[in-house]
Amino acid sequence: MITEETVDELAACLDGAQRAVADTESLADTHPLTIDDAYAVQKALLGRRTGRGERRTGVKLGFTSKAKMEQMGVSEIIVGELTDAMCVADGGTADLARFIHPKVEPEVAFRIARDVDVDSPDTDIAACVDAVAPALEIIDSRYRDFRFTYEDVVADNTSAAGYAIGPWQPLQDVSDLPVRLRGESREAAGSTAAILDGPLNALRALLDMARRRGFALRAGDVVLAGAATAAIPLTPGVTTCEVAGLGQVSVRCV
């Protein structure tokens, strides 16, 4: 386990990279990390952001694709946190100058209606959710040349950079819905089944991670359940995610 001083040092490095819009070397090059170390750095990183006035708005899941898990050699999802500074209104504008090398993914978002008792073995997380929506997530790894380890990604708050949520709909079965992601020059198509064979499975995996890693799940929180297709580069123009039966969400990048 690295020291608290090193945790703060690494959090400052990642925070500085994000604020300066300048990439940084993999942390693992100089500080081999355990997964516990990585989540400690992530917590310190979010502490810096909330300390400057950002407000936590929810959580996001990563590695919810079995193919991605196999690629990274892992067997569990990863979790990061969202803040209001990352939120882009549906149809709103995102400034590309904020990001280093951004990509975008189509997602399913859930809205938590009441605080989740993560410590109770009887908690049904789906019963704590009241709405679902199409979503876009902007990811922006702070690492140079996208060269990073599994622990690096966790420390970097799972590459969280921005998100947009479409119109909320009452909670419904979203286990196998067609998804299309359209950018100005690239498209991707897939299904919500790519998210752990159904986004509700991702919610259940989140509950397990919240118990083990100390994530709070509060009323009003947004949960980004994971990507339904591979990411595409985020470029100038309009990017749209359409989830059959749920609707669509878009952002304009300048």
What do these coordinates show?
- The protein has 5 helices and 13 strands.
- It has a single domain, classed as Fumarylacetoacetase-like, C-terminal domain (Fumarylacetoacetate hydrolase, domain 2, Alpha-Beta Complex).
- Strands 1, 2, 4, 5, 6, 7, 10 and 11 form an 8-stranded mixed sheet that branches. It has a 5-stranded mixed sheet with strand order 3-13-12-8-9, with no helix packed on it.
- The chain is α+β, with helices and mostly antiparallel strands and 254 residues long.
- The mean pLDDT is 95.
CATH superfamily: Fumarylacetoacetase-like, C-terminal domain
Mean pLDDT comes to 95
Query: Could you state the order of secondary-structure elements as H and E?
Result: HHEHEEEEHEEEEHEEEE
Count of discrete structural domains? 1
Low-confidence spans: pLDDT under 50, at least 5 residues? Answer: none
Main traits of this protein?
254 residues; alpha+beta; Fumarylacetoacetate hydrolase, domain 2; 8-stranded mixed β-sheet; 13 strands; 24% helix; 30% strand
Question: How would you summarize this macromolecular structure in one to three sentences?
Answer:
The chain is an alpha+beta fold.
SSE layout and pairing:
Layout: H1 4-20, H2 35-51, E1 56-62, H3 66-72, E2 78-83, E3 93-94, E4 103-112, E5 129-139, H4 150-155, E6 160-165, E7 169-170, E8 178-182, E9 187-191, H5 199-213, E10 222-227, E11 232-233, E12 237-243, E13 247-253
Parallel strand pairs: 1-10, 3-13
Antiparallel strand pairs: 1-2, 4-5, 4-10, 4-11, 5-6, 5-7, 8-9, 8-12, 12-13
Helix pairs in contact: 1-2
